[in-house]
C-alpha cells in the first residue's frame, strides 16, 4: 500500500507541474515562432539548417519525433533543398521536437537538444502552393521567441523573459528533488535531507553551465550529466552509512535515469 501511495504521489507531481518543465535537466533550448499576415491555417512551417553533406543524400525521411504532418507533407518538406539548406524536422536527423502543422493561432514551436543555432524559416502555403524562406537567422536566446512576417519573411527575435526562465528552472529543480526523494523512499535509503541538498546544488550548477554554454548544449549536457551522477554517487557513498554501496550505486543510477526519462516524456507530451 505504501509503494502504491508513493507511485500515485509521483504521478500527481508530474501532472501538477506544467509540461514545459523538464525534470533533471531543466529547460531545453527552443524556438517559438509567431507568424504575421498569413490568412490561412492550412500551412506547413519548418526550420531549415545548412548541411551540405546530408543535402547530397537521398535516403528517405529521417523524422525524429512527430511533427504533426502526413506522410505526403513530410515528403514535401524532405524534398526541399536550398543550396544545402534542408529541413531540420524531416531530413537533418536532429533530436528535435517539431510542431510543423498549421493552426489558427499561427504559432509553432521547436525544441529539444537539436534546436539549431543558425537556421532559416520555411513556410508552405497549402492553399496557394507558395513556398517562402527567410534569410539566415542566428538564435541569440536560449529559449528564443521570434515573429516572422509572411509578406516579406522578415524575422524579429523578442527579448528573453527572465522571470519565465527563473520560474521554469525553479519548478524543474523542485520536480527533480521530489522525484528523487520518492525513489529514495522506495529504496528506503534514508538520508533524505542529504539527497535534497545534493540535488539542489548539483542541478543549479548544471543549469548554470547549460545556460552559459548554449552553443555547445549537447556536449555540455552529456559531460555535465556524467559529472552530476558521479558527484551525487560520491556524496551518497560517503553519507549513506546504513545501506550497502551496491544499493547506493543502484539508487543513484535509477534516480538519475528516471529524471532523464521524465525529460523525454514531458517534452513528448
Task: Break the fold down into its secondary structure elements and pairings.
Blueprint lengths: L1 H15 L13 E7 L6 E8 L1 H5 L14 H9 L1 E2 L2 E3 L9 E2 L8 E5 L6 E8 L5 E3 L3 E2 L4 E7 L5 E3 L4 H26 L4 H21 L4 H23 L5 H24 L1
CA radius of gyration is 21 Å
The tally of helices reads 7
- Could you spell the SSE succession in H and E letters? HEEHHEEEEEEEEEHHHH
The coarse overall form would be: elongated
Mean pLDDT across all amino acids = 83
- In which range does the helix fraction lie? 40-55%
Strand content: 15-25%
Q: Mind summarizing the main beta sheet? A: 6 strands, antiparallel
Counting DSSP E segments of at least 2 residues, the number of strands comes to 11
Unreliable sequence segments: 1-24
Q: What structural class do helix, strand and pairing data support?
A: alpha+beta
Distance between the termini: 29 Å
Task: Describe the model.
This protein has helices at 2-16, 52-56, 71-79, 162-187, 192-212, 217-239, 245-268, and strands at residues 30-36, 43-50, 81-82, 85-87, 97-98, 107-111, 118-125, 131-133, 137-138, 143-149, 155-157. The protein has 269 residues and is an alpha+beta fold. The strands form 2 sheets. Strands 2, 3, 4, 7, 8 and 9 form a 6-stranded antiparallel sheet that branches. Strands 5-6-1-10-11 form a 5-stranded mixed sheet, with no helix packed on it. It is elongated, with a radius of gyration of 21 Å. The chain starts with a helix and ends with a helix. The relative contact order is 0.16. The model is unreliable at 1-24 (pLDDT under 50).
